[in-house]
């Protein structure tokens, strides 16, 4: 479905640019200005099996790298980056509030499309909601963040889903026991060896969330955004298309609507979003680069051992077990505005045998995910080390997508000082470091690990220079392959 031109409902502020003309030559060939995306996928094409997995992925890659222009519906003059209406304004681009990029790959590009980004492509999270648009980059208006690489993202989403299912089962068992006994019931929240604290269920059906740690109170593990605020690649994509490009998806904004008054409707279809989501999910998994030099291989072995001995592997877990290696789209925990399995048909593929490039190693019907993370949030700040505590605006609340009335205490903002454990499986090819990308070396990033990571940080700097260097050399070997 192509983006359709409709009549503008309001006059834009200032002098509008002339509309780009699409011209058809005598032989039926289009000439002149053209949209970046000339062919759109319908979800029915995907669900009917007309297209192979690799054809869907290829279509998704084309969307990920497409440099959207005005004929695609780029820009959102009459809506904010959250979709809220506003008086139509110019210009089409704003570095702080967005739209701020022509393509997904404009920022996710290092060392290849889908990778991370340099400091120069940092985004200003939450500024997109402001009306009027702000040009102020201060922490009072936004949270400045570096672009994170997407390689191996399908495995990360499936880990989060399995952890969510396990946490919900623990919570639901506690609720049933509380109702049966008429007394509060407390359960440890532990899944895949990771502790998320404890939950207490009350006989009246409410939850006491005060013991929950490192995850929202709804116990949905959200593995995307550095704050752990986004459930799925699909949600991430629907958000980003509007925020960064001014492209409204029919899934989020409806069919034949023009909420941003840019003159175009149906800018991306449900099928388009499925395709670009599957492309991200099927990206190659990062892995180890093993040097030919035998002495250097010994250094890596020593560095890996010291990485564990210093306690770094306590949060940056070298391996997590995925019980089922099948990736399925869409995610059943998607929030409103994003397709769920009851809305569209499910598309699945095996993360160990299908997809692009390097894949997960199978283990039974599941797989081993060597991502060096535990998908939990931590506070890395203390009185001496506060580099990672520069943010002032909370990104959402701890209730997540649950009804705040289902808890025994009032809803609270997500803590501004807590971040998800960074995935290190691509750290050797994903500099710069830190949530702002303002640290140029791994040693700098380790230095500023205070708070919950202070003990392992101090253990690292208690090592000799040589031993520290072996750990760095080991980390350098973790790369996009």
Radius of gyration: 23 Å
Give the beta-strand count: 18
How does the overall form come out from the CA principal axes?
A: globular
Strand content: 5-15%
Helix content: 10-25%
H-E string: EEEHHEEHEEEHHEHEHEEEEEEEHHHE
Mean pLDDT: 94
Give the low-confidence spans: 5-15
How are the strands of the largest sheet arranged?
Answer: 6-7-8
Report on the architecture of this protein.
This protein is α+β, with helices and mostly antiparallel strands and 481 residues long. Helices cover 25% and strands 13% of the residues. It contains ten helices and 18 strands. The strands form eight sheets. Strands 6-7-8 form a three-stranded antiparallel sheet, covered by helices on one side. Strands 11-15-14 form a three-stranded antiparallel sheet, covered by helices on one side. A hairpin with a 5-residue loop joins strand 2 and strand 3. Helix 4 packs across helix 6. The longest helix is centred in the middle third of the chain and has 29 residues. The chain is globular and about 75 Å long. About 2% of the residues have low confidence.
Layout of strands and helices, then pairs:
Blueprint: E1 4-5, E2 22-24, E3 30-32, H1 43-47, H2 53-65, E4 123-125, E5 143-145, H3 153-181, E6 185-191, E7 194-201, E8 207-208, H4 233-245, H5 250-253, E9 264-265, H6 270-281, E10 287-288, H7 294-309, E11 320-322, E12 326-329, E13 347-350, E14 361-363, E15 366-369, E16 377-379, E17 418-420, H8 442-447, H9 454-461, H10 465-476, E18 478-479
